[in-house]
Amino acid sequence: MQDRKTDVLVIGAGPAGSMTAKWAAKGGADVLLIEKRQEIGSPVRCGEGMSKDWLPEVGITPGRWINLEVEGARIFSPSEKVFEINEKHAGNEVGYVVERDGFDKQLAIDAANEGVEVKLKCAALGLLKDHGRVVGAKVKEFGETYEVHAPVTVGADGFESQVGRWAGIPTNIAMRDMDTCLQYRMANVDCDVRYCDFYLGKVAPGGYVWVFPKAEGLANVGIGVQVSQVKSPADARTHLDRWIDHHPGYAKGKKIDMVGGGVSISPPLKQTVADGILLVGDAARMIDPLTGGGIANGCIAGKICGQVAAEAVQAGDPSKEFFQKYEKGWRARLEEKLYRNWLAKEKLVSLSDETFDKVIDALAGVQLQKLSVHNILKAVRDKYPEVTKEFEAFL
Fold first, then answer.
1. N or C: which end of the chain has fewer CB within 10 A?
2. pLDDT tens digits, residue range 169-180?
């Protein structure tokens, strides 16, 4: 295979990568999108829940990849008091339950339809540099090694991103800012297809158990636990199996699928660009630290990334300074919420089961017109004034 040239090289064909590629091509750039696996979207490493209000913003049309449209979420305290939230206020994980591999493939199809060239089984081995500036990557496709030269390279290679490290962008992450996750797809369960369910407290140290219904009797049942609160990643399975055993509607179910992996619950990176390169999606730590969800954020940032990449090609200026337009653009759209949710996560992981019970009990007894920190704390203070003292430092 011979070396080749392109305007924009996107490494990683997840949602953020495909979205970046699509919008760069729409901006007139010649785009190459590479994916190290032989199939886009597989294996699935996702709870498969997503909100839906952001889809028009990035040009995604709902399609056959949707399993269910849910009404909202139910949040269960350790003693299983329940607080119901409608879909509008439930956050990035609630709205649609999807077939994630089908969703990822559709985004790649959308990119290809805009003229993006997609290469599978094509892994980046390292970055090419010219006097410190990234000018492409060395890749290996079906055992053959060659170079792709590009003035703009995008790292969309996920949570374990190597591209950022190769570029010299600080990507270190603390143990308290990582979750280890495990999920079963289970048949013959008693799930409620109207809701995505979340269970809080010591059942999932530093995280939560989730149930995302796929159809009547079929659901994704998973857990995320904070790495710093367990002895080993294998403890996630112990906690999840224990939760299932204590819930007859799921204990009688049959496991037909299992997936695991790590998720960042950190603040976003302080730097996501350098000369010749941009990072997007999970590679830039754009995952919501409170929920672990990253699809919406990755796609929203991907649109901005692709547009700026195309503009840089047209201007002949793929510099760190030019890329500040992307840095400022995605931060204006996402950063405040990411940092706010990281602060909330830092506080929530320290709460006792007793406090979680009081918070959910207080919320279950009121009808909140608008879900906000102020309204939540007011409702809790009215019933359990002593609990709000725990949030004074956070506020």
1. C
2. 998 888 888 899
CATH at residue 241: 3.30.9.10
* Residue 395, pLDDT score: 47
Which range of residues forms the domain containing residue 370? 346-391
Going by C-beta distance under 8 Å and a sequence separation of 6 or more, which residues neighbour residue 134?
Answer: 127, 128, 153, 167, 274, 275, 276, 277
Residues 358 and 322 placed together within one structural domain of the fold = no
Query: What is the tens place of the pLDDT at every residue in 33-55?
Result: 999 999 998 877 778 899 999 99
In a domain, 282, yes or no: yes
Q: pLDDT tens digits for 288-321?
A: 988 888 999 999 999 999 999 999 999 999 999 9
Report if residue 247 sits inside a domain: yes
Q: Is residue 91 located within the same domain as residue 130?
A: no
